[in-house]
Design brief:
Layout (H helix, E strand, L loop, with lengths): L1 H10 L3 H12 L12 H10 L13 H9 L2 E9 L5 E9 L16 H7 L10 H12 L6 H10 L2
Antiparallel strand pairs: 1-2
Helix pairs in contact: 4-7
């Protein structure tokens, strides 16, 4: 298998060749999803076949990223090296089977100390996207915010 991967990597680095190499790497439990896929059907497949929560894709289109978010996926990005040494960025959408949700906020108790500390903070939405991304990278490194993911998120949320 390693010889086939090395040979295929040398011959062609087109999307189809990369997908074939990555399909062997990720195996059957990690579902390969594409931009044109019916994501509702893929969610059902993941749950029905008890597949791993992480899927993989080479598609980073803005519409695809938005569709993933709206179907319950949390997309992150990873970098991997092919045998040739070429770096490939892979989208790793994760479908969380359980989520934390605050319900009945009117029953939520916030103690006095938390209220006092909260006055030091301010919550804004969509006001400093680039600064937030830069801060994440500064604190954690590129980790899941590799260039194709940053471009996709930046396009999607402008």
């Amino acid at each position: 298998a390693a010889a086939r991967e090395a040979s295929a990597d040398k011959k062609s680095l087109g999307k189809e060749a990369q997908e074939a190499l990555l399909a062997r790497r990720y195996g059957r439990r990690h579902l390969h999803i594409r931009e044109q896929d019916d994501l509702e059907q893929r969610v059902r497949q993941i749950l029905d076949e008890d597949l791993d929560s992480f899927c993989w894709s080479l598609d980073f289109g803005e519409d695809f990223i938005i569709r993933l978010f709206t179907r319950g996926f949390l997309p992150i990005c990873s970098s991997t090296k092919l045998r040739s040494g070429r770096t490939v960025y892979v989208l790793l959408p994760k479908l969380h089977r359980q989520r934390s949700v605050l319900r009945q906020l009117h029953e939520l108790h916030v103690d006095k100390g938390a209220r006092k500390r909260s006055k030091r903070y301010r919550l804004t939405v969509d006001s400093a996207f680039e600064r937030v991304v830069a801060g994440c990278i500064e604190q954690h490194g590129e980790s899941w915010l590799w260039p194709p993911m940053r471009r996709a998120l930046s396009s999607a949320f402008r």
